[in-house]
């Protein structure tokens, strides 16, 4: 009887032996969830700090409005006042569509292109650009030439190896190549600068 009672006591004590393991699992799970939450928060902060096309255009317009005012007298002052006013939805919409300050700012939609085969596996680039045109450029012509502009840029990227574009000199050289090629088929005005808003090679 004593042996049977002892065996029953052992059987009753067995489930309580699993409790520390359960506590450890819950602890590990809590730490993992906390770590995931922390990394997601850091990633969210990083994404919010990325410069957008609207930011680039806004900075350029703020700087360009002053130069335009100095160069054009009264007309320039009106332009500067028009862009320097409130920060409402109308201004943001005007910036995205491309406004003339000391030139036409024209954002292109982000696109992906294959790069030339390098030493390793096939790689591609995700790129977002804002093109800056001279004052005399007509937005209607740029709109009409948009497919031609995109085709020119993609063709150039297809010919580039990843290692070329990873260098600062390679990025600057690409800008010059794109400017020259697009300026060859523009009738009114020309590209004066190109801004990289997004540039990611995978």
Give your account of this protein's structure.
This protein is of the alpha+beta class. The protein folds into three domains: 2-48; 51-97, no CATH class; 103-202, Band 7 domain (Tetrahydropterin Synthase, Chain A), CATH 3.30.479.30. The protein contains eight helices and four strands, in the order H-H-H-H-H-E-E-E-H-H-H-E. It has helices at 2-13, 19-48, 53-72, 74-84, 89-97, 139-158, 162-165, 168-185, and strands spanning 104-107, 111-114, 124-133, 191-201. The chain is elongated and about 80 Å long. Residues 11-16 and 64-99 have low confidence and may be disordered.
Summarize the structure.
61% of the residues lie in helices and 14% in strands. The protein is an alpha+beta fold. The chain folds into three domains: 47 residues; 47 residues, no CATH class; 100 residues, Tetrahydropterin Synthase, Chain A (2-Layer Sandwich), CATH 3.30.479.30.
Determine Rg (CA atoms, Å).
29 Å
Total of helices: 8
Q: Could you give the distance between the termini?
A: 73 Å
CATH architecture of the largest domain: 2-Layer Sandwich
General form: elongated
Strand content: 5-15%
Decide which structural class fits the backbone: alpha+beta
Order of helices and strands: HHHHHEEEHHHE
Q: Number of folding domains?
A: 3
CATH fold assignment of the largest domain: Tetrahydropterin Synthase, Chain A
The main sheet comes to:
4 strands, antiparallel
Instruction: Estimate the mean pLDDT confidence.
Output: 73
Low-confidence stretches: 11-16, 64-99
